[in-house]
Structures are given as C-alpha cells and as structure tokens.
Design brief:
The protein is mainly alpha-helical and about 425 residues long. It is built from 19 helices and 5 strands. Helix content is about 50%, strand content about 5%. α7 packs parallel to α13 and α9 packs across α10. It comes from Durio zibethinus (Durian).
C-alpha cells in the first residue's frame, strides 16, 4: 500500500478491502475485550497443578505458541519450522514482506489488544518481540490448516504431539490474530475454501473421536483454539426446566462392574461427541447405558485435562467436560471396568495405558464434583441412581453376588442327578 502511487493494481485493491475489514473486526474485538484483571489467555489453574501427569498435560512437548513457554530450550528447534511456514504463507498471499501485513496504526492496536489478553508478567518486554511472536505463530497455524486441507501432511514431526500442544491452555494464541492472518491468506485465492473454524476443527479432531466435519454453527467468537475445540464437542442439549428445580445433592453412581451386576447393559454409542452419554430405560435390551468411544492415549489425557482447566478458569456456566470427567471417574474404578469397556469398543488404544488413564480420571474426579443442578448429565445421573437403589436392582446384585462355589456345586448336583436318572433308566 504505497500512498504515493496514483494507481492500485487489483491485488492491492483486495488487500485494501481486507485491511478495512480487519480494522472493523479489531474495533469489535476491542469493545468485547475484558478488563486487564480478566485474561482470555489464562494460566493453568492451581487446583490442577498438583495432580499426577499435570506437567505433561500442561507443558508443550514440541512447539510453543504465545508467551507462556516461548523461552523453553527444548522447544527452540521447532522455531525453524515456523519460519519455513512463514515463507510459504508469504508466497501464498503474494505479500513480499511480513511487515506489510498491517499498517503502523493497526500494529499499535494489535499490540495493545494482545497485551490485554495475557498477564503482564509473561509478556515480552519489547513490543517488536511481541509482534514477531504473534505473527510467526499465527502464520504457522494458518499455513498448517491450509496445507492439511490441501492434502499436504508430510511434515517432519508427530502430528498428534503437535495437536496436543495446540490444545494446551498455556499454549494459546488469541483467535482474532489467527483470523486476521487467515483473511490475508485468502488474497490471490479464487475462492475461500472454508471458514477458519472449520479448517482448524478438521485438523484438530484427528486425535479425537468425532463424526462431525463442521464446527457447531452456534459457536461465535472463540477465544482461542482450545476454546473452539471444546465448544465444538459440546452436546446440542438445552436445559430442562426440571433441572433448575433439582437440589444440589450429588447423585452417586457405581462403577461399570456394579452397574452391570444390577442389570444395566453398557454399550457403545455412535455420536458426534464423546460427551453425548445416553441412558435408556425402555429398549431391547432394557436399561442400556450408551457411551461414545474414546481413545486412551497421551492426547486424550491432555485434552480432557486442558478442557477441564479451561472451564475452571472461565466464567462459562456449563462445565460439560468437568461433569463428563466426574461421571467417568465413577464409572471406571479398576482395570476390570476398563477391560469391559474395551471389549465393547468404547475404549480404544494401547492396553498399557489403562492404569494411567484410571489414575488420571481418579485425580480429576477427586478434585471436582458435580451436582444435579447445572450438570448436563443430570437426567442420566438421576435415573441411574434411582434404578440402582431400587428393589429389583438389589435382587439382581444379590443373585450375582451369591456364593459362587455353592452355586456351581448346586448346578453340578443337578446335572449329576439328571445323568444318573437317565443312566438308571437305560
């Protein structure tokens, strides 16, 4: 954008329109930006720091994004990949230099808005350093999503490890920065392939079970990639008026083993999100608890922990992942529970990670609890609790728990008596 030139070529005209749109977006974001005391890029909550494997779930292994962990020695080699992707991003947009992305006024607004997103103690002291970090990280993300959509995925790193890093709470970049750079990446393109949230979602969901290729249309203005990912997995359920009338009493449910002994069948459910747990009282077979499948691996633990961490330091009312983790904490108590869930294809992944997964659920479940009021699983909790404490369930449990040796002996006596009767008759 050279003001001394009387004429503008078509690409410059497109760039001018994009700049105007970016300025409007920035003005809207500035109006929605919280006070300096409330940060959209939060630190890992203290209540989760002490749990086992919290360091693994909290600290990036491969790449840092944003200011929290940018100086870690083991993450510096990945910076070279970011610079490579920056060059590819510049080639895609046709903009020769990164400094031409925004005007000086836009950069000043960008810096001030970004500073309000992070605690001051983690921010770079130099503003130019801040801008370099945000543009380098943001261009890498946009080019990564673009290349994946174009079928280019022969990268020299572990994709699951990178996705896990992109979804760590302290490794987030303000989404409005990535959106601005995504808009620039559309320059020179014949048509926009898709929206940024959809591109990001299709890349991130590789390590998590989901049948949906499109982000929930109700998601608006995500704070960052973790916020987008979490919101995309929320079930499309509305609050029932009865839920508001529930007491704060916590419905305690039993493990998979005890539920099965009481007559409840546990089965796999095909769903768009792992959060869509269902309990049906009338069907064949009756009393079926249906759970969507989920993998047991490092990414699963990292995503669950960080989604819970986001809910704990966020003002969101519905803490779905916290409720889900507490629910699974009660269901999965011992390896026998995991073994059964694996046999019905609810749990997938290496068996050597089973105990680690149980410990992770137990650690999270002990730190948090749920009540019927405010829990999206309140109907399932109430109905399972009601059935488990019924007379019929008690009879089933007593029958199953009857002394096995005496039961087998009785069966053997009956079989021997029948055989003896046949033999004597012959």
């Amino acid at each position: 954008m050279q003001e001394e030139e009387p004429r503008m070529d078509p690409q410059d005209e497109v760039l001018a329109v994009v700049v105007v749109n970016l300025e409007e977006q920035m003005n809207r974001h500035r109006q929605q930006t919280p006070d300096r005391g409330t940060y959209t890029m939060s630190a890992f909550p203290d209540v989760l720091v002490e749990i086992d494997d919290s360091i693994q779930c909290r600290l990036p292994k491969l790449a840092s994004f944003g200011p929290y962990h940018r100086d870690k020695q083991h993450l510096r080699p990945f910076e070279e990949h970011k610079r490579t992707f920056l060059a590819q991003f510049l080639h895609r947009t046709g903009i020769p230099e990164r400094d031409q992305f925004f005007s000086s006024e836009e950069l000043r607004e960008l810096k001030e808005t970004t500073k309000r997103c992070y605690p001051q103690q983690v921010m770079p002291s130099d503003d130019d350093d801040l801008v370099n970090m945000m543009l380098l990280d943001g261009c890498f993300m946009v080019e990564l999503f673009r290349q994946y959509e174009e079928g280019r995925d022969d990268w020299p790193w572990s994709v699951p490890t990178l996705i896990a890093d992109l979804l760590k709470l302290e490794n987030q970049l303000p989404f409005f920065i990535v959106e601005k750079l995504f808009a620039l990446s559309n320059i020179g393109q014949r048509a926009t392939i898709s929206t940024l949230p959809n591109l990001a979602w299709r890349f991130l969901k590789q390590v998590f079970y989901s049948t949906s290729n499109v982000v929930n249309s109700q998601i608006q203005n995500p704070k960052h990639l973790l916020d987008l990912f979490r919101s995309s997995l929320l079930p499309s359920t509305e609050e029932d008026p009865q839920q508001r009338n529930q007491s704060l009493l916590k419905y305690a449910i039993q493990s998979v083993k005890h539920l099965r002994n009481s007559g409840i069948t546990v089965r796999q459910k095909t769903a768009k999100s792992l959060l869509e747990i269902e309990f049906r009282k009338v069907q064949l077979p009756p009393l079926a608890l249906k759970i969507p499948p989920f993998p047991i691996n490092d990414c699963t633990s990292t995503i669950l922990v960080n989604c819970v961490a986001l809910e704990q330091c966020s003002p969101v009312k519905d803490k779905h992942f916290t409720s889900y983790v507490c629910f699974m904490h009660y269901l999965v108590k011992e390896p026998e529970d995991v073994k059964f869930l694996r046999s019905v294809d609810i749990i997938k992944g290496p068996s050597q990670d089973e105990m680690r997964f149980i410990n992770m659920l137990n650690n999270l479940g002990l730190n948090f609890s749920y009540s019927a009021r405010g829990c999206y699983l309140w109907k399932q909790l109430r109905e399972i609790h009601s059935y488990y404490n019924s007379c019929w369930a008690s009879i089933r449990r007593n029958f199953v728990n009857y002394n096995s040796i005496m039961l087998y002996c009785s069966i053997i006596q009956i079989v021997v008596a029948i055989l003896g009767w046949f033999i004597s008759g012959n």
